[in-house]
Hints:
Elements: H1 3-10, H2 16-27, H3 31-47, H4 50-78, H5 104-115, H6 120-126, H7 132-141, H8 153-161, H9 172-185
Amino acid sequence: MSIHDLKQKYGKSKKSRQLYNTAIRVECPGGSELLDLLELVNHMRQRAHGETAQILKVVEDRLQQSRLGMFEYIRKKYRVDEPKPTQPIPVSLGIGQYGEEWTNQEIAILEKYYNKGKGIDKCVEMLPGRNRGGIIEQARKSGFATRKARYTPLENEAILRGDFDALPGRSINALKIQKSRLLKGK
């Protein structure tokens, strides 16, 4: 079997992650339930705070380990007869595919540019094999500073009152945009 068989069976137009997740759902016992649970825990963790968020992170990491085991099973099953490249593939900093481990050098670059406020664009430039979503996810996993993505109902009330000083850690522009969204929604 080969990767072409996998694409033929589960969809040629699917991205790699979608392709493997579809195969996991169909071919691995409990795969569908695992992926559904992983999505639910991720969703809950994004909205949780403090100790609850930490506990959900541990649960998510363990679920990811199970998913990676299933991923490896599918990968090995469908790449058994895949020919090896005739020329070595150059491996250098930042050159990567989904699922490759982050190197210490990549994480150091992430810390230097993402964590110190240089922004995501600089990280994308410095890590050419990594996409924006992957960089943001690795920054989150590494515990680096990330923007607050959600607003609580109390924060929304303060925004509608124009009490921006009550919301440290958010830029004035972000608060104005959120206020505009809230007013449009009413």
